[in-house]
Amino acid sequence: MKDFLSDLSGPANTMDILNLVFLLTLAVGVSRILANIIPLPLPILQILMGCLLASPLFGMEVELDPEIFMMLFIPPLLFYDGWKIPKKEFTDHGGQIAAMSLLLVLVTVVAVGYFIHWLLPSIPLAASFALAAILSPTDALSVIAIAQGRLPRHMSHQLEGEAMMNDATGLVSFKIAIAAAMTGGFSLLSVSGEFLMVALGGLLIGGALSWTVGKIKQWMTARNLYDPATYVVTILLLPFAAFYLAEHAGMSGILSAVAAGMVQSRVDMLPVKTSTRILNRSIWEMLDFTFNGVVFLLLGLQFPGIVERVWADSATQSYAMGTLVLYAVVLMALLLAIRFAFIYAYHWIETRLLKPRAKGGENQPLLLITTLSSVAGVRGAITLAGVLSVPLFINGASFPGRDLMIFLAAAVIILSLLIGALGIPYFLKFLSLNDLKEHERELLKARQIASQAAVDWLEEWSKAQSSDEPEPKGSVTARIIDSYRQEMQAMAMERDDRADQAHQLHQLETDLRIRAIQAQRKELYRLRKRRHIDEQMLQTLIRELDYEEAALQ
After folding, report:
1. 281-323 confidence digits (pLDDT tens)
2. Burial class, 227, CB count within 10 angstroms (exposed 0-12 / middle 13-18 / buried 19+)
3. Of 161, 160, 244, 253, nearest to 201 (Cα)?
4. What Å distances lie between residue 155 and 53, 365, 536, CA to CA?
5. Keywords in UniProt for this one (predicted)?
6. Is the Cβ–Cβ distance between 332 and 93 less than 8 Å?
């Protein structure tokens, strides 16, 4: 901890750390407000704000230890990626997602790695492969935010699945290449074998740990020992525990965090403890937004110093600052070209082998879909967090080309965001989209089925009551059934003569509504199990029911 504090800004003390945390958190919130006013992608705005904080006006200087940076930001970001990945779509588009996250990453690492080393021989070959690896992950959240929900659903799901998987494969490749740079030896054959071993080991450790946490939760719930707040705190620590255990065992902590998130998402969707789901969801959405924003702010804080050092080094090297900017543009063009060629070839082969596939939004011009998917390959927080984790030193000497690597990665991130912000809305104009209307129809149909399940349960409950039950109880049941059928949100005020009876009826109504919501939730799980609705639709509808139940309680 002492080393961590000393790395922040010279002679640091507790107040400096608190001020830094406060300013970064405040800046993340302010950046979101400014993004509604200034027509710039949010990550670029956050980088600019970081540069402003590093200017002489504010004089903030931050230099995080790379290992601390990796441990602090990577596990929770990847854990949440694994948590929210749409499982059905991941299965349906598994072939393309696997190709994009494994084969495309491998092609990118090899082709771009050799190209970077040829372009800038001052960056060692292993370090060039590391930079190419960390440039391979894409950021689906940025793309979806730019598209504002107008992307075809199948493409949105593919981008989310690809982003989650190539985050992991890109980071694992990056860590292996960095290790090779540290030891001075690099072999593609040995790296491939090591990749498979550490990947499988990481997946097993993360999945097993998350499964164990889920089993403990079930055991505690069965014995009334379960506390939502304690469980949520445990889940907050889970990605760090999965990462640390895997790394300590010599396996991939990155894939361990992803596997823990994927397994835990299944536990989270179990029909128990609505309050836990609401609390979990709210905290993780807040943390994901905050951590992404802090990563870009930290780049902005360090970027002026990086540019200054690169500028100083350019006097003794064969390149100038303008040349480096040109190299970044060429590098971005190469990444786009590789992505375009790979996607086009994949879809061309797929349509030749499976000609009859014309499902929904996939029945679009191949060239247009390929171009849109290519410009949607935006780089984001994972690329940034990875490159900032490059070690400062090797055997006491400065890591060769570290500042160049960070400069090029930052430039590619900014260029990809600009290309996405301009290209995605432009190419979307040429797509014939009916996804939003179709999605709304499917949601409406699922709501109707769930509501009918609630009505059926209420009618069965009403019939099961003895005939000598007080009439007001029957009227309560009838009113609830009527409200479901009419899709009403509120009930008419009751007029009862006796306050006690009114209170009892109110309690009965609340209990029946909660049990009817539980019937809806079970029906939605059945619909998902039978694949009538997808994972995202299930999460949307479960969220609605959770808030409705919370309001009743």
Report:
1. 778 888 888 888 888 888 788 788 888 877 777 666 667 778 8
2. exposed
3. 253
4. 37, 13, 14
5. Antiport, Cell inner membrane, Cell membrane, Ion transport, Membrane, Sodium, Sodium transport, Transmembrane, Transmembrane helix, Transport
6. no
Residue 242's SS3 state is helix
174 vs 487: which has the higher pLDDT: 174
Q: Which of 167, 164, 112, 110 is nearest to 137 (CA)?
A: 167
Cα 363 to Cα 372: distance, rounded to the nearest angstrom: 14
pLDDT in tens, 388-416: 788 877 777 778 888 888 889 888 988 99
Q: How many residues does the chain have?
A: 553
Cα-based angle 182, 194, 83 (whole degrees, multiple of 5):
100
Give dist(CA 402, CA 398) in Å, integer: 8
Q: How far is CA 367 from the centre of its chain?
A: 28
Alpha helices (H) in 57-124, listed in sequence order: 66-84, 87-92, 94-98, 104-119
Round to whole Å and give the CA distance between 125 and 175: 14
Cα 464 off chain centre by: 47
Q: What angle do CA 3, 238, 80 make, to 5 degrees?
A: 100
State pLDDT tens for residues 51-85: 888 887 777 777 666 677 677 888 888 888 778 77
The C-alpha angle 81, 208, 189, rounded to 5 degrees, equals 75
Chain segment 178-201, per-residue pLDDT in tens = 877 777 665 555 556 666 787 788
Looking at the DSSP assignment, which residues form a beta bridge with residue 366? none
pLDDT in tens, 252-271: 888 888 889 888 877 655 54
d(CA 173, CA 196): 11
Backbone angles phi, psi at 316, to 5 degrees: -105, -5
The answer to whether the pTM exceeds 0.85 is: no
User: Residue 158: which of 224, 88, 205 has the closest Cα?
Assistant: 88
